[in-house]
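Researcher: We're teaching a course module on how sequence relates to structure. For the next exercise, students receive a sequence and then see the predicted structure as C-alpha cells, so they can try to spot secondary structure elements on their own. Here is the exercise chain.
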Amino acid sequence: MRILYFAWVRDNIGYSQEELSCPKHVRTINQLAEYLKLQSEGHARAFDNMNAIRAARNQQFVSHDTELSDTDEVAFFPPVTGG
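Model: And here is the predicted structure for the students to work with:
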C-alpha cells in the first residue's frame, strides 16, 4: 500500500510517503491510522485526532470507515479550506 502525507501530517511524520504491507486486520482507513500510530512518535502525533484528518483512497475523498486493499494509494491531510 502506498501512503501519502500532506501538510502538518507530513511535518509530524517527517516524510511525504511510504510503502507498507499492512497486517490482515487493517481493513479500513481508521484501522490503518491506528496501525500507523504504532510506527513512530511522529505517526502517533499525526494521527492523534482523526477528526482533524481527511483521507483519500485512490485520489477520491473517502470516509474513515472505507475499506482498503493492498494495492490502494491512501493520502492523509488536514481539511482543506478555501478563501
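Model: If you want an answer key for the exercise: The mean pLDDT is 94. The longest strand covers residues 73-77.
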